[in-house]
Design a protein that fits this description.
globular, 17% strand, 8 strands, six-stranded parallel beta sheet, alpha/beta
Length: 173
């Protein structure tokens, strides 16, 4: 396992993690704690995260983009409404074209696929905490693929939203 000495990550960063899958959430939380992060908070829903973000600013937000209570693009907008300079790392299992395009449009600071090695997360945290962007190797390849003329932006996302009522964004209350 990698440690923060190898990746030069400041241990005093405040990090918020949101994921609706308990195993992923607890795994990321434990991994970051074991790698020297002192201020990590875990949230099971977008609304829980946003309630806390109204009270406190986090240095980094590590978010899943498919949560039951809010679409990822809506969550990104909500975080940035609260904290315009928010640094956002997306941790997702979705490698579809619509996800790649949406993350590019939202100008997130990093994207890590859940299928990648955990060391990618530490690399992303280091880069983002230093003001850089970071994208896992597969996301970079997928981004290049979406640049081809035959790519149709948002077609898969539009179809998904039309066919899935649970994919409709919920308004903040």
């Amino acid at each position: 396992m990698m440690n923060t000495n190898e990746t030069n990550i400041p241990s005093e960063l405040s990090i918020a993690i949101v994921d609706d899958h308990e195993v992923v959430l607890e795994g990321l939380y434990s991994f970051l704690k074991k790698n020297g992060q002192k201020n990590v908070q875990a949230f099971r829903s977008a609304h829980d995260l946003l309630r806390q973000a109204q009270k406190q600013t986090f240095d980094l937000y590590i978010i899943d983009i498919e949560l039951p209570d809010m679409e990822g693009d809506t969550l990104i907008d909500a975080i940035r409404t609260l904290h315009a300079e928010a640094r956002i790392i997306v941790n997702t299992m979705h490698e579809e074209v619509w996800v790649v395009k949406t993350m590019q449009e939202k100008q997130v600071d990093a994207v890590i696929y859940k299928s990648t090695d955990l060391s990618q997360l530490l690399h992303a945290i280091r880069a983002v905490s230093q003001g850089s962007k970071y994208f896992c190797p597969q996301f970079r390849r997928d981004s290049q693929r979406t640049a081809t003329p035959e790519s149709k932006p948002h077609s898969a996302k539009t179809q998904k939203r039309k066919s899935s009522p649970s994919a409709t964004p919920h308004k903040l209350q």
